[in-house]
Amino acid sequence: MTPKRLTGKVALITGGGNGIGRATCLRFAEEGAAIVIADVDESAGQQLAEQINDTGARAIFVSTDVSSEASVGNLVKEILGQFNTIDVLINNAATFVLRGIDASIVEWQQVLQVNVLGTALVTRSVVPVMKDSGGGAIVNLGSISSFIAQPAFVTYSATKAAISSMTRCLAEDLAASHIRVNAVCPGTVWTGIVEELTRQQGLDRSTADAHPDWGGAHMLHRIADPREIANAILFLASDEASFITGENLMVDGGYTAR
Ligand SMILES: NC(=O)c1ccc[n+]([C@@H]2O[C@H](COP(=O)([O-])OP(=O)(O)OC[C@H]3O[C@@H](n4cnc5c(N)ncnc54)[C@H](O)[C@@H]3O)[C@@H](O)[C@H]2O)c1
């Protein structure tokens, strides 16, 4: 039997209740990690924790708003109370404010607050815990939007470019503490936001896969499943990636290679 890759590790996944975060929680649980699901979506988070516990793996849900310092403080306190450590942090929570330059101040604040400040707040609270235990691994969720232009994506893309830059800077600052920091940068993934946007265009999964603006924009000519992104997150979080830090790994079916 292949040894499990995260046995004995405690993994915190923000935005773990849905989409890529949910797939990551399930994938990490298969690999032996104890899972902390931190999300504003209480019903999805609770349901997933129960589902994982039913398999014999260990998971807890902590209702958390990553953009609130008090909420993040409570999250870390809860984890330390239950597990005493945090080995892996996945900064996955994000909000999709897809706007051009006419975005309002409120819209800018909302997207910066969750996607950029939220990542910074959670990381700032978790790093001392990792340092105390001798190291750890952080994986941030970037995007193809960190690097390429897409119509009316100014707000969201600015935050995803910030994530990629923060990944490199944090990798530099935390290397001496044996904490590796990387980002996974997905192409289009079949989660709630993509289902909603394609539905608005009258598309379902198979017609969206074939559409030149959706699946067709990727060399592999389809949209990714969340588990395919979770597999890349797992690799970077595991000891198999022991000499990788500061990397933005494209998991985009060739989208940006063209
Ligand atoms: N879906 C895609 O095509 C795609 C592509 C590239 C990158 N990404 C990135 O992957 C990550 C996950 O995306 P997804 O499509 O799975 O999204 P999703 O909306 O399915 O899931 C995001 C989760 O984050 C939670 N969340 C939102 N605001 C929060 C907050 N303030 N505090 C805590 N939790 C919060 C939501 O409740 C939800 O459970 C995001 O960082 C996104 O930018 C997604």
List keywords for this structure.
258 residues; alpha/beta; Rossmann fold; 2 domains; seven-stranded parallel beta sheet; 7 strands; 15% strand; globular; binds nicotinamide-adenine-dinucleotide
Note the main sheet: 7 strands, parallel
Q: What bound compounds does this protein have?
A: nicotinamide-adenine-dinucleotide
In total, the number of domains comes to: 2
Helical content (DSSP H or I, runs of 4+):
40-55%
In the CATH hierarchy, the architecture of the largest domain is 3-Layer(aba) Sandwich
CATH third-tier fold name of the largest domain: Rossmann fold
Topology:
Elements: E1 10-14, H1 19-30, E2 34-39, H2 42-54, E3 59-63, H3 69-83, E4 88-91, H4 105-132, E5 136-141, H5 154-174, E6 179-186, H6 192-200, H7 205-210, H8 226-237, E7 248-251
Parallel strand pairs: 1-2, 1-4, 2-3, 4-5, 5-6, 6-7
Helix pairs in contact: 1-8, 3-4, 4-5
